[in-house]
Design brief:
By secondary structure, the protein is of the alpha+beta class. The protein contains six helices and four strands, in the order βαβαββαααα. The protein has a four-stranded mixed sheet, with helices on one face. The radius of gyration is 17 Å and the shape is globular.
Length: 165
């Protein structure tokens, strides 16, 4: 593999960016950290808001490519390093299920977890694109009965996302 530009990870400990750091290590990717002191509010200053106007981590910069949002970053990185073998490639029968469980984390699990944590009652079924906590947890639990990983016996970058803490 030709020499690759290092990936800059905008990172703050004990945040979602920790999962990206673990993924970079799993991929054996060249990277450098750009630390942000969230307690000091560095994520809300102009320099970082130019990277991510939401003031959130993680974000990565790879050459001229800037990627924000934890799930997008994970998919991007895993696809960038196919030799690591932790992402089903396009054409692989597991690609669809892999993407499903990758996206399910942000689209269903996190919103349902926030509702549960804040003790919010689920809204009407037609207004809840992610369902409710019990349904969401049931879907993940049922999937994990098929093996130790989300895709059964195959470890993928999606597993890194789900077990990052």
């Amino acid at each position: 593999m030709p020499t690759m530009q290092p990936i800059t990870l905008f990172h703050s400990p004990r945040t979602r960016s920790s999962g990206t750091l673990v993924l970079l290590e799993e991929l054996k990717a060249p990277y450098q950290l750009h630390g942000l002191n969230m307690k000091a509010g560095e994520q809300r200053q102009g320099a970082y808001l130019a990277v991510n106007p939401m003031g959130k981590v993680p974000a990565i910069l790879h050459g001229d490519v800037l990627v924000t949002e934890q799930v997008a970053i994970g998919i991007y990185l895993a696809d960038l390093f196919p030799e690591a073998g932790i992402t089903p490639l396009i054409g692989d029968a597991l690609r669809g299920p892999y993407l499903r469980w990758y996206v399910f984390y942000a689209a269903c699990f996190e919103p349902a977890l926030v509702d549960k944590s804040l003790k919010r009652e689920p809204g009407p079924a037609g207004m809840m694109p992610y369902g409710d906590w019990a349904t969401t947890l049931g879907a993940v639990t049922a999937q994990l009965t098929k093996g130790p990983w989300l895709l059964g016996d195959r470890f993928t970058a999606a597993d890194v996302l789900w077990v990052r803490r």
